[in-house]
Each structure stands twice: as structure tokens, then as C-alpha cells.
What we know:
Elements: H1 5-19, H2 36-52, E1 56-57, E2 60-61, H3 63-67, H4 89-102, H5 105-113, H6 117-128, H7 132-145, E3 153-158, H8 165-178, E4 183-188, H9 192-195, H10 207-210, E5 215-217, H11 226-242, E6 247-252, H12 257-263, E7 268-273, H13 286-291, E8 294-297, H14 305-320, E9 332-335, H15 344-361, H16 363-389, H17 392-406, H18 412-422
Parallel strand pairs: 3-6, 3-7, 4-5, 4-6, 7-8, 8-9
Antiparallel strand pairs: 1-2
Residues 159, 161-167, 298-299, 301, 337-339 line the site of guanosine-5'-diphosphate.
Amino acid sequence: MIIASKEIFKLEVFYVFLDAGCRMQDAGLRDAGCRMQDAGCRMQDAGCRMQDAGCRIAGYQMTDMDERKDFKSALNVMEGVEQPGQVDADAVKKLKAKRQQALSAEDFVRGIISENRTVLSIAITMIESSLHAHQQKAQEIINACLPFSGKSIRIGITGVPGVGKSTFIEALGMSLTSAGHHIAVLAIDPSSTRSKGSILGDKTRMEELSVNEKAYIRPSPSAGSLGGVARKTRETIILCEAAGFDVILVETVGVGQSETTVRSMVDFFLLLMLSGAGDELQGIKRGIMEMADAIIINKADGDNINKAKAATIEYKNALHLYPPAESGWNPVVDICSAQSRTGIEKVWDYVKSYSEKTRQNGYFVHQRKEQFRQVLTDTIDQALKHDFYNRGDIARALKHYEKEVLEGNLSPYTAAAEMLKINGETVKLY
Ligand code: GDP
């Protein structure tokens, strides 16, 4: 079989990772040994991070990569790599775990606050890991990083697929980095469990930004519930801030629940829209418009400019119907073209004005505190529920009481009270 040279190169990259003591974690490549399909996508991230890390992973000089003319950027390695049969997934996992344990929590914190991208990436991988030991260490790292965090502006960006989110982030990111900012781009993608981290993965996205040394792009954690992914993203924000990133962009796909989640972790929420398509067509629920601090009509270029301008009037009128925001900020509606990079600076001006205004009136700090408070109670809720429903005696009793309720022998409230008694709690239901 003839194997194309590009394919050979991909395999080479794969073996370099293994050879480097499976530091694929360093590059944000989870489960690299066993999920090479996934690794194909993550290599985008890996490519940038390896460059960030001075193109050195365990002593291997990636300068070789630069010399390959057919290799424009790491983002072009996308189709994934077949997993060779001889890879012992268990051994790879153990090796990776050992490597991670080698760094103490203090080492991590020192590395993160001295802006070492490689250490930051390993720490984020620990946050994403489901291993208990990793979680424990991750929590130590997060707590130690907390005093160094919080100094960024966190911006949530949403809009339906195709509206131009990644093009916009690339444009905004390039503009901000050239003005001296350091930006981190994170993503929440509820579909990523199914599509193995499709966001920032399966298509060429943010090519310029991904090789920009002032930018750090981290794909969405690909496993777990939206709640789990949200927690990981919140914790990742803390580490990124401690690592000196002063603008955090959190992207989400406009499909309902994830916007609310992203709203609850950012300071400023930006909704990208298209002109000429109704809200319903764009899948944007009214509640999402209500959460937005700015609605920006993208693709305002070519023949589309007038339509985009007309759309701003519609959205401004629609926004008047909502009650004034608690922040004291009046949401803005404007146009931009991410592709021709017009109107992007204006969006940043809105963010700055919002930040100034809400810092002055106290809302900025109030909102962040509220977000922390919410995380605290949500986490307790989730843990209690998880613990409750995973108990064998509860599961058995639930089956019994469900039957009683469905057959009309017992009211659901009485059954719930009986269930809670089993838990040993005296909980008032009313
Ligand atoms: P996402 O799915 O929301 O991240 O959207 P993308 O950034 O991938 O963009 C989807 C398509 O719209 C791509 O083909 C882009 O080139 C195109 N696009 C993005 N922004 C603009 C814009 O401002 N003007 C025009 N004409 N096309 C754009």
C-alpha cells in the first residue's frame, strides 16, 4: 500500500508523542494512546502548544515541522491517525499518569504563574481527568492559583453554527494580541461528547490565532455532561488567568442550555447574529437575547451591509421590550464583518465601556461573587443528588415507591418523604 508522505508525517508526529513519554497531555491530548481519532483533532491544539513550548517536547525539536513546506500549520492535520495495533493503551495511560504525578502541586502553581504554557496545559488536563488522584491535585492547584486569578475580562460568545464565531474570535483575538493583550480561547460544546470534541477540532479554525504566541486555544473537554464540562471550563478560566491571560473568550454553540451555562461564567455576553434570517431560523431563543450585553450582526459586508443595518433596528426594537438589566448597562446592537475585520474594534470598545461602567457601579464584582455562590450551591446539589441516586438501598426503594405512586396507592409527596427518611434526613418537603 502506498502511504502518502503527509500520512507518514502524521504517524511520525504520533510516535514522537509516545517517544516523549506520552506528554501528549502537555499538548492537551487526553487519552492519546487509545483515542487517536480524537488525537487527530487535538493535534491542532498540540501543534500550537508545542510551538508555544518552544517546539520542545521532551527534548524533541519540532523545528523539523517548520521545515516541511507542505505543512502549513498544525491545524492542517485533521483527519486523525489510525491507531497502530502495537500501542499498549494501558501502558500509555500508566506512563502518562506517572509523568503527571512527578510534578507537585507547588511545581504546577510555580509553572502556571510564570506563564509556562506546557505546565498550564498539563494542569488543565488534570482538571479534565476523571482520576481521583488527578482531581485532588487539580483542586490543590486551583486553590493555590485563586489569588492570582480574576484579573481578566471574561467574554462569552455565542451564535448558531455558521454565524462566524471562530472567524470573529480570530479577528478579535488578532486585534487584541497586536494591542498587547494575552488571550485564552476556551469552548463549551455540548455536542462534543458525540462528535469527540468537534468544536475547534474538525475544521480549520483560527489558523492565525492558533500560532500566535499571545494566544492560547484550548478545545472543549470532550467528555461528560454539560455540568461537568462547565465545571472544567470554570476551573480552566482560573488557571488561565493565573497564567497571565487578561482576556478570556468562551465560545459556545447556540443550542439552548449551553448559553445559560456560559453566561454564568463570564462578565460580558456577546450574541452573534445574521441578518435576513428570523430569530427562529437562527435557533436563538428570546431568553438568550435577554442575556446578551451585545448583539452583533456579523457578515455585514458586500451586498449584505444594508440588510445588516436594517437588522440592527429590528433587534434594538426587540430589546426595548425587555426590562432594564441589573448591570445598569444598556445592551448594544451593531454590525461587523469578521471576515473583512471591520467593526471588530468597536465590539472591543463596547466590552471596555461595559467593564468600566459595571466596575464603577459595583455590578462587575457583584456578578462574579454571585457566580461563585451559584457554583457552590450547584456543586452541593449535584453531589448530593449523585450520592443519593447511586446508593443501592435508595435505588431499590425508589423502584418500590415509583410502583406505589404509579398504581395510585401513594401520593408522590408521601413517597418522596419516605424516600428521604431512608436517607436518614429529616427534610421538609414544603
Ligand atoms: P462558526 O460555526 O460560527 O464558528 O462559523 P465560522 O467562523 O466557521 O464561519 C462560517 C462561515 O462563514 C465560514 O465560511 C466563514 O468564512 C464565513 N464567515 C465568517 N464571518 C464572515 C463574515 O464576516 N462575512 C462573510 N461574508 N463570511 C463570513
